[in-house]
Amino acid sequence: MKLWFKKISVALITLMTLGMYIPPTYLDADAKEGNKDIFSSNEDVQDKDFVFSDIGEDNLSDDEDFSSLDSSEDYIQLFTDQAREQTFTKLGPRIADKVEDDFMMEVFPGMEEVISSILEDIDEEEFPFIEINEQKSSVNGEKIFNIYDKQSKEDVARFHVRRDLRPKEGYWFNFHYHLRDDNYEEHHDLGEIYWDKNTPPKWMS
């Protein structure tokens, strides 16, 4: 009798409590949030991969489009910088301090243009074989610098400066260059700068 009563009691209690327990809503919310985080993180990864792939493709195309232009501009800039430095070294501080502004306005733009023109006529593959010869200039001679071709072992161009004494005027500095194309015979003028009636100092002094 007692055993039968216990079985009935257990069955009644089970029926009475069935459906009364409801899991806390925050557990379901947390689960949904977790799923959202998973999906959003996956979407972020996909978006980032897409962005990175686009950036990589853009950079590659830019490099292909502008690599040759940047290379030629770099060489021209390098050569013109060296040309300016070599010219001031040739003139020396005593002369350069007085004529620097005139040189930069009257002569250097033409020198830049000539150097650019020379390099533009040379194939890009040959650029590494072209250099400015930085051997020391003569104290009394005209040489400033030469643009030298290491493959042919010839000067492509020779840049000079000459002191001219003109009656009743004084001394002028004549800047010019010679080209391999005409066997260095022609004087191609770059410009002139007036010094003074007094004799200028020696070069590089």
TrEMBL record:
It comes from Salipaludibacillus keqinensis. This is Cell division protein FtsK.
